[in-house]
C-alpha cells in the first residue's frame, strides 16, 4: 500500500524555516532576559537590605538600641544576640522570632540569602558589626543584624517566564506573518512566469514571461526563460518550414512514381521492366532527399564530439580524391588546426569542392590560411559566379538556381544547407564572398586553442 507524498511549496518551506529560527532565537533571548531581570531584581533588593543593616549599625550607640524607623520596602530588621534572642526589631519584625539562624563568620561578615517557609519567602542580609563595635557595645559578644523584605512576586512565581513566553510566541507569529507576505511578494514574479508559460502552446509560441527589473536570480530566470522560448519558437518555425519544403520536394517525385506505376497497371502494352527501372530511379531520388534531410537534422540537433582536425591535410586529401573531373589547386598554410568533427568537416569540404567543380570552366582553387584567430578555407571556381542577391538563397534547403538545375538536374538542393549547418554547429560560418571570377565559398572556423582540452 503506497501513500501519496506531499511536498511543501517553496514559500511554505521558507516560512516554516523562518518560524523555527525565530522561535529558537527569541527563546534564547527570552532565557537570557529572564536571567538578567532576575539577577538585577535580586541585586537591587540585596543592595537595599545591606544598606539597611549598615545604616542601623552605624546609628547604634547603646547595647539595646531603639527600634529602627524603616522608610523603604526593607521593613524587617532585627538585632539578635548570640543566644538567638531578638534584642531590638522594627515594627514589622517585632514579636517575631529571629528571622534566620544563619550566623555569618568573622571573616565574611555580610551575607545575602533567601529563606522560605509556609507563609512565603524572605530575602535577607545578615551583617555582623565590626569587632570594635561589638567590643564597644556588647563587651565583645557577637551580634547579628538581619534586614529583609518579602520576596517580590516576580521572583517567587513564574509570572516573568509566562510574560516572556507570550512575547516569544507573539514575536514569532509576527515574524512568520511578515515572512509569508514578503516571500509571497518576492515569489509573485515566479508565479506570473508559471502562468504565462502554462499558456504557451505549440500553436502560439510568441508569448514571453514578464521580466522584473534588476539582476537577481528571478530576473535572470525570466530572461533565461524568454531566451529558451525564443529558441523553441525558432526551432518550431524552422521545423514547420523544413517540413513544408520536404513535403513539397517529395511530392513531385512521388507523384511521378505513382503515375508510372498506374500507367504500367492500366496499359498492358507498357514494358513492366522499363516501368520498374524508371520507378527505381525515382525511388533513388527520394532516398537521396531523405538521407540528406536526416543528415541536416542530425547536424542541427546532435552534439558533435570534438577532435583535433588538421584542415590543411583534410583539404589536400579531399582534393586528391576529386581531381579527376576538374583540376583542383591547393594553396595552404601548414598545420591549420581546428577543433571539431572530422567526418562532418570532410562533408563540408566535399560539398564545396563538388559544387565548385560542377560550375567551373577549367579549374578550382582551394586555399587554407589563418586570419584573426580563425581558420579560413576558400573554395573558388572560374565559372559564371553567383549574383549578390542570390548568395544567401543558395544556402536555403532545396533552393536551386537555374544554373544549378541545368548542370545537375538530379541534385537535391541540400548540400550547401548541410554545409552551413555544420559550420554553425562548429561555431563558424560559411558565406559566398566577392570574387573577380566565379564563386568564392569561404568557410571560417575558430582556430584550435592549444591550452583548451580536446
UniProtKB/TrEMBL annotation:
Ranges of residues in domain Histidine kinase: 245-449
Annotated SUPFAM superfamilies: ATPase domain of HSP90 chaperone/DNA topoisomerase II/histidine kinase (SSF55874), Homodimeric domain of signal transducing histidine kinase (SSF47384)
Enzyme class: transferase
Enzyme Commission code: 2.7.13.3
Annotated InterPro entries: HAMP_dom (IPR003660), HATPase_C_sf (IPR036890), HATPase_dom (IPR003594), His_kinase_dom (IPR005467), HisK_dim/P_dom (IPR003661), HisK_dim/P_sf (IPR036097), Sig_transdc_His_kin-like_C (IPR004358), TCS_sensor_his_kinase (IPR050428)
One term of GO molecular function: kinase activity
Reaction catalyzed: ATP + protein L-histidine = ADP + protein N-phospho-L-histidine
Top-level lineage group: Bacteria
Keywords: Kinase, Membrane, Phosphoprotein, Transferase, Transmembrane, Transmembrane helix, Two-component regulatory system
Pfam families: HATPase_c, HisKA
Keyword Phosphoprotein: yes
Cell location: Cell membrane
Transmembrane portions of the chain: 162-187
Boundaries of every HAMP domain copy: 184-237
Protein known as: histidine kinase
Gene source species: Nonomuraea rosea
Amino acid at each position: 500500500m503506497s501513500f501519496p507524498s506531499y511536498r511543501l511549496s517553496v514559500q511554505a518551506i521558507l516560512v516554516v524555516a523562518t518560524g523555527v529560527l525565530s522561535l529558537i532565537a527569541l527563546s534564547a533571548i527570552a532565557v537570557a532576559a529572564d536571567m538578567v531581570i532576575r539577577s538585577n531584581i535580586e541585586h537591587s533588593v540585596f543592595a537595599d537590605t545591606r544598606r539597611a543593616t549598615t545604616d542601623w549599625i552605624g546609628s547604634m550607640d547603646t547595647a539595646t538600641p531603639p527600634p529602627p524607623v524603616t522608610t523603604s520596602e526593607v521593613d524587617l530588621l532585627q538585632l539578635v544576640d548570640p543566644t538567638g534572642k531578638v534584642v531590638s526589631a522594627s515594627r514589622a519584625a517585632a514579636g517575631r522570632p529571629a528571622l534566620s539562624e544563619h550566623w555569618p563568620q568573622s571573616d565574611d561578615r555580610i551575607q545575602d540569602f533567601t529563606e522560605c517557609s509556609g507563609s512565603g519567602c524572605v530575602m535577607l542580609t545578615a551583617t555582623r558589626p565590626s569587632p570594635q563595635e561589638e567590643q564597644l557595645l556588647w563587651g565583645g559578644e557577637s551580634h547579628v543584624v538581619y534586614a529583609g523584605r518579602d520576596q517580590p512576586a516576580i521572583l517567587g512565581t513564574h509570572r516573568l517566564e509566562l510574560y516572556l513566553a507570550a512575547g516569544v510566541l507573539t514575536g514569532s507569529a509576527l515574524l512568520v506573518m511578515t515572512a509569508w507576505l514578503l516571500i509571497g511578494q518576492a515569489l509573485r514574479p515566479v508565479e506570473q512566469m508559471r502562468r504565462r508559460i502554462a499558456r504557451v502552446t505549440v500553436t502560439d509560441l510568441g508569448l514571453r514571461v514578464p521580466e522584473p527589473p534588476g539582476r537577481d536570480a528571478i530576473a535572470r530566470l525570466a530572461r533565461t526563460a524568454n531566451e529558451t522560448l525564443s529558441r523553441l519558437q525558432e526551432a518550431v518555425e524552422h521545423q514547420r518550414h523544413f517540413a513544408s519544403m520536404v513535403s513539397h520536394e517529395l511530392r513531385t517525385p512521388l507523384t511521378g512514381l505513382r503515375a508510372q506505376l498506374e500507367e504500367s497497371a492500366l496499359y498492358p502494352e507498357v514494358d513492366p521492366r522499363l516501368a520498374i527501372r524508371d520507378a527505381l530511379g525515382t525511388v533513388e531520388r527520394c532516398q537521396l532527399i531523405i538521407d540528406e534531410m536526416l543528415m541536416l537534422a542530425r547536424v542541427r540537433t546532435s552534439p558533435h564530439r570534438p577532435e583535433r582536425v588538421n584542415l590543411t591535410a583534410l583539404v589536400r586529401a579531399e582534393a586528391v580524391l576529386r581531381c579527376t573531373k576538374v583540376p583542383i589547386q591547393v594553396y595552404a598554410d601548414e598545420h591549420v588546426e581546428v577543433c571539431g568533427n572530422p567526418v562532418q568537416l570532410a562533408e563540408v569540404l566535399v560539398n564545396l569542392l563538388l559544387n565548385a567543380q560542377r560550375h567551373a570552366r577549367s579549374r578550382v582553387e582551394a586555399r587554407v590560411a589563418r586570419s584573426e584567430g580563425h581558420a579560413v578555407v576558400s573554395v573558388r571556381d572560374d565559372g559564371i559566379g553567383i549574383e549578390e542577391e542570390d548568395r544567401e538563397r543558395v544556402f536555403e534547403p532545396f533552393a536551386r538556381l537555374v544554373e544549378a538545375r541545368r548542370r545537375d538536374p538530379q541534385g537535391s538542393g541540400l548540400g550547401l544547407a548541410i554545409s552551413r549547418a555544420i559550420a554553425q554547429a562548429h561555431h563558424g560560418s560559411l558565406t559566398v564572398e566577392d570574387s573577380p571570377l566565379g564563386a568564392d565559398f569561404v568557410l571560417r572556423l575558430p582556430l584550435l586553442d592549444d591550452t583548451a582540452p580536446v
